[in-house]
Design goal:
Strand order of the largest sheet: 1-2-6-7-10-13-14-15
CATH topology of the largest domain: T-fold
CATH superfamily of the largest domain: ApbE-like domains
Largest sheet: 8 strands, antiparallel
CATH class of the largest domain: Alpha Beta
Distance between the termini: 64 Å
Shape: globular
Number of domains: 3
Helix content: 25-40%
Order of helices and strands: HEEHHEHHHEEHEEEEEEEEHHEE
Strand content: 25-35%
CATH architecture of the largest domain: Roll
Structural class: alpha+beta
Number of helices: 9
Number of strands: 15
Length: about 350
Amino acid sequence: MQMPIRSHILPMLSIVLLFLLAFATPRGFAMQYTITGRTMGTFYSVKFISTEKQSRAIWQQRVDIRLKEVNARLSMYAPTSEISRFNQAPANQSFKLSTDFYQVLLESQHLYQITNGAWDGTVKPLVDLWGFGTKNRSETLPASRQIQEALARTGFHKLTLTDHLLTKKEADITLDLGSIAKGYGVDAIARLFSTNGIKNFLVEIGGELVGSGKNKRGDPWVVGISRPEKKGLSTALYKTISLENRAIATSGNYRNFFERDGQLFSHIIDPKTGFPVGNKVVSTSVIAKNCTIADGLATALMVMEVQKGIDLVNSLANTECLIIQKQGNGFISTQSERFKDFEKK
């Protein structure tokens, strides 16, 4: 016969159950949240860790609003964006800059100087001429005369930047900051999280990333550098990187290009010659303290001679790079002095 449970045992069972529940859901348990969306003609993703309950919907709204603000400053395709309005402005007239636009231009000026013009934010006439910008591509290649005319309408030194004011010395100077816009967008979202008390996160926009703190397991964030294959969207990785309190950006000529008479023409234009880069460099990745610099510098390294690029990066604090060149049917790579410190062991 089943014996009845004595009444004095029930409170003891309740105490044991509460004790077990307390240990099953420890205070300060880290949760990972993920939000995704579209921006700048590509996709974004944010993973963040918090020991406090967060509203994914609220964070989604915050991120989307911030990215819309960045687009309103830097979009080449919106006629009312800040950069479009500057491009339409006359010469010798001070143009008042928003904080976003001003910060991007400070980084742009720095990039132009340290790369000796290998990165130049005024190459819009050349980008359009070759069909990689806001104008449709011609069926014929640009003539030498057209290239020289477009070159005459470039030169970051033809701009004057002072405190939140920008002036063009010639009316036909225009800006195209597409090579650092995604990087700046990544930095803007990184600042959004860090200033709101979130210290562990990974932000990505179209392959440009910032990793802050550590992932849910307490390890540095792990990201990959793609193998630069032209055919298809290869998922193979060339290198795996540990990213902690650093940004990484990659530039390459293996996705955005066209072919004429058996010759490939990349979307990356050499600001000095006016032609798409024709060297054997197929991919460059830069690790830096912020993604704006990493993004722009990766583009500059596609243009520069390999050794000059390596020498430049070795001279910069908190900056490393990997340059991949095509060799026969395979690849060879050159890296800066301490790039190996970031390779996942």
